[in-house]
Amino acid sequence: MALKVYERYLAREIYLGTTLVLLAFLLLFGFFDLVHELEDVGKNGYGLPHALGFVLLTLPGRVYELFPVAVLIGSLYALTLLARHSEIIILRASGLSTRRLLVTLSKLGLGFVVLVFLVGEFLAPPAENLARQLQLKTRSPVVGQEFRSGVWVKDERNFVNVRDMRPDGRLHDVRIFAFDERYQLQSISEAREARYVTAGDWQLEQVMQTSFANDRTEVRQFPSLSWKSALTPDILSVLMVVPERMSFVQLWQYIRHLEGNQQKAQRYQIALWKKLIYPLAVLVMMVLALPFAYLQDRMGGVSIKIFAGVMLGIAFHMLNGLFSSLGAINNWPPFWSAITPGAIFLLAAAGLLWWSERR
Prior knowledge:
Elements: H1 5-38, H2 48-84, H3 87-93, H4 98-139, E1 151-155, E2 158-165, E3 171-179, E4 185-198, E5 201-213, E6 216-228, H5 233-238, H6 248-260, H7 266-277, H8 281-294, H9 301-330, H10 334-358
Antiparallel strand pairs: 1-2, 2-3, 3-4, 4-5, 5-6
Helix pairs in contact: 1-2, 2-4, 2-8, 2-9, 4-8, 6-7, 7-9, 7-10, 8-10, 9-10
């Protein structure tokens, strides 16, 4: 259905305001990220083009994180300017009720919701992965160097320790601790390198295997050895990425892997629900901006409201992270941990609307 004249006018103002705010945020955060990367320019062949490339590849992730805040400030700015020019008063005097205005804002926000979901699912995760690979290829040939003992993974009855992972998916310095059904240690296999061959199959190179059986210890060496495992390079690379930076598909696969190995998946389940709920925060931010348009301040109204929008955006961002951490620590239901920050702000928006209508 075609938009009405006033809806097209609101759409133009809100979309323009949101775009300008988002660009300002990206320039600001991109500048700070570049300053941080400049500390490593000149080390191990890491040059300025690499730093610029890294910052550009992290921008989609920034768009995903900052979009609800940009929508809040952009909508607040656009609606406040309309109110200052008495255009909101004219619309309401023409019969436009608060309910219809909320419906209009929701219609305009649906495009933002789809955009945020697409960026978070299809653009930000691969861009983050490319940024990490670019950084690793120019700074260091290995992944996960910050881990002292490497990455530990449970694979059915085995425990796997991976010291390093290269950008092409090869594993270096792999240790496999194999247990029997009574969880008694059967063998320890140490491989210099592991290469993923096909689904469920790895090829271990330069293997030294220590077997424990019948009160005897036997040490054997193999130039190569086949290893059956449910692990894949994608799963192992996930261990190097924070859950919030993963796609919905990656989160779903990794949660299934953790649950199949009877491991705790609370943090990843919260991130999965946030993937579905976070784009809807855009609609909450637009609703929250509406009460500010009803407040008629003659002096300094716009700047005060913009400042209030920035503070509310920061509070929303902090609450998002806080409830994710609290939910993982206290084993709260993942759905409620993910939805609570948005619900709090939606209740605040409803309260402000009720208060402004009664003034």
